[in-house]
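Hi C.,

You asked whether I'd gotten around to modeling the 555-residue construct. I have! Everything is below, sequence then structure, no commentary in between.
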Amino acid sequence: MRRSILVPTSIALFPAAVCAAESVEFILPPNPLPWALFFLASAMAVALAGGLIYILRYIIGDRRVRLRDETRQRLEKAYADRLREEYQKKNDELKTRLQQVRRQASMLFSKVKNLTTTLDPEKVFNAITEMLVQELGVARYILFLHDRSRNELYPFRWAGFKDEIRDSLILPVDKVEHFLTWSFSRGQLVYRNAALDDPETRGLVDRDPLPDTLVAMPIGIPGETFGMIYIESFQDNRQEVDEADLRFMISLVSFMGMAISNANVFLQTRTELTSSKQLSERELAEKKKLKDIFSKYTSAELVDTLLANPGSVNLGGTEKNATILFSDIAGFTAFSAGLAPSQVVAVMNEYLSAMTDVVLEHDGEIDKFIGDAIMARFGVLGDLPSSGRAAIEAALAMLDRLRQLQAKWAQENRECFKIRIGIASGPVLAGNIGSERRQEFTVMGSTVNLASRLEALNKEFKTTILVDENTFAQVAKDVRAIPHENVQIRGMEGRMRVYEIQGITRGKQEKRKDLVNIRSRLGSTQPEPVPPAKPADTPVSPESPPRGEPHEEPS
């Protein structure tokens, strides 16, 4: 079918005609205006379509860029988060491992410390085997010790082996060529892989009786090897030993060697100490017995000096400045006449025990008992700040203790008595006096005689404590005293001033200074200076000595 279509009016019918398979005939009108409009409309349609396509491409392209950037950012963020999580996980694992290492190091240090300070051999070897298993992770091992007399390595402790190796696995060092004997002879730690690389040890690695040796570690100190540690396998089945393992093993076996060395010295000396200990215990018991016996008669310091240096006991002597105290019971004959002998002994023992305690409490020394009399010395065996003051304080304390005894005896309806005391200071000869078979440590000299005479003079002066001028000079500012001038003492040349002590006005002196070992000075001929006596004042007849007011020296 043929159809004629005017171009300006039939453009829209063109697709329909094509679809209907009809022939389309374009008839151009003679006027060009329709034709121009046709092409203008076509151009505008193409331009509009192009603009729409450009706009669509712009919109789609921008979204694709944004999607690409967002995707990249998301991927980067996810990767960073994953890295952060992995880092945190690794960091936590590292901290945990570090804490474990610290705990292990602390436990290892404690074990090593205990190992090196232990002297008991059994505890030493228990600690060594425990460290092999727990610290080195060893599964099968043998601890060999060296028999010096036979020059053999014999099994001492093991794990993973039968007990038969005790007798069957003995390695003579000079006769058996093996990995272990080579390591023992040279004192070097050797492990299997290194031995295989060394031509000198390559042929020793797989030899019987221990062909599976993995590590051989000698235990010892410089100059001496006590044994070997044979390692056949580890708990983690590893066959390699790295540098860190080697350093750790070398350090560990060095501590083990020190511990065995200490225990070895202990074993060598324990037998000697056992025999000497029994002798020492007997000697100590004998010395204690002697000290207990002689301390009842003399000072503990003198007994200690004698026991510490018995070879110094001789018949010599030395001069020393000291103070001597004599004490006697007033009217003892009349007092004891009305008592039975047993009663007298009981009273005297109670009295002398109390007075002895007082003397020793004031750093004095009991020289001897002369019947009911007491002779004490101050400053002979030990230096005192003032031996005279110590003696006067002891004398006053003796009177106080006697008053306590008198009160007790009065309640028991027993007789009481009083005492008289004489004190003198000056040079004395101190030493062991007697024969070769029996000696007595005592003091002699004019000072001793003067103290005895002053004690007796109390009866004539009707006083209780009399001291010489040398003694009074040491305490002149601290005591209440009455002077007795121009007194003639029996057996003494010239006249002197003596003092009646009535009390102390100031505090007590300090305790004894360090003891002086008088034994080191026995035989000395150099006397110590003695303070000179003050000249007597107005002569007074000794037959009628004056009794004045309490006297104090001016400050």
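If it helps when you're writing up: Confidence is low (pLDDT under 50) at residues 5-12, 512-555.

Thanks,
B.
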